[in-house]
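Supplementary Note 2. Why include the ligand at all?

Several targets in our set were suspected to adopt different conformations when bound, so apo predictions alone were not considered sufficient. For every target with a known small-molecule partner we therefore ran a joint prediction. The input for magnesium ion is given below.
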Amino acid sequence: MTTETRADAPLLEVRDLHVEFRTRDGVAKAVNGVAYTVFEGETLAVLGESGSGKSVTAQAVMGILDIPPGKITGGEILFRGQDLLTLKEDERQKIRGAGMAMIFQDALSSLNPVLSVGDQLGEMFVVHRGMKRKAARAKAVELMERVGIPGAKERVGQYPHQFSGGMRQRIMIAMALALEPALIIADEPTTALDVTVQAQVMDLLATLQSELAMGLILITHDLGVVADVADRIAVMYAGRIVETAPVHDIYKAPAHPYTKGLLESIPRLDQKGRELYAIKGLPPNLMDIPPGCAFNPRCPMARDICRRDVPPLYEVSPERRSACHFWEETLHG
Ligand SMILES: Nc1ncnc2c1ncn2[C@@H]1O[C@H](COP(=O)(O)OP(=O)(O)O)[C@@H](O)[C@H]1O
Ligand code: SF4
Ligand SMILES: [Mg+2]
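The joint prediction is reproduced in token form.
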């Protein structure tokens, strides 16, 4: 957490982003006006149930969206003030890797199975920095040490399948860090790992983020992991941001019923045996999002206006927004 390094100019600013998927069954509106900002050196956690548009938004930022069937139908993605959506593919490629990098959930399918880890890490330096093989290999070992892989010198020639899941995830983190990008997007980076390994990998990511003062977007469906790591949270539902706030404000008192439901679904060690509140119902079909507030069919507080008017992002405080007509009641209730 490095809120003190927060500069005035945002590192990344997503503005009113819209993404659709045109499929045989119809048009799925996956992202419907998402806006979020990440400052230099800051960690933003993006939270929401599966299917809420977290990954699609990230893919649009990275320029790796599946087009077609995907299509960006509106919005801007400003990286250090430059709109990425207006860039040519080769200009975009330069920003990927050196400017921003992504860590995926599944290291095994993201790493190349037939190249040694040292070759894959070294490749970054050969391609982007024009280094010779030997120097690049030394850099690879250095990176492996940095992400806590024991015996890096001996293991640099091994292949991805020879490493455990946790170690592979560390290798992916090393790949992402190689060129010291200003922004890292980690999309559910620990979801596929055992619980104890999850905590270790999350600790590593948080430590490196703060040492290198990188901007980090941490995508997760698990509110439990973000409290110690994030500066701010953006909660997504049906392709929209429904609440955004400094992390401590959200834990103290959520200003949106959906966030409240997510918080009450976290298992707590000190309350064993307590019935877990799970948000009832399912997220909406993105081909047929309900009118008004998309959360209304599942919301315990829904009233007539919720079924009619889409709630704007109301200002709760200068640092905080909620897309709920009844945010005040939620906050104080
Ligand atoms: N390649 C694709 N083809 C068709 N639809 C897609 C594709 N990728 C994503 N979608 C649609 O976008 C929705 C949001 O996906 P995603 O951003 O991956 O959700 P999550 O919040 O779980 O990361 C999905 O539920 C799906 O309807
Ligand atoms: S706007 Fe209405 S339906 Fe939506 S979250 Fe608020 S109270 Fe619930
Ligand atoms: Mg996802």
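The chain has a mean pLDDT of 91. The pocket of magnesium ion (ligand 3) is lined by residues 54-55, 187 (CB under 6 Å). Comparable summaries for the other entries are listed in the accompanying table.
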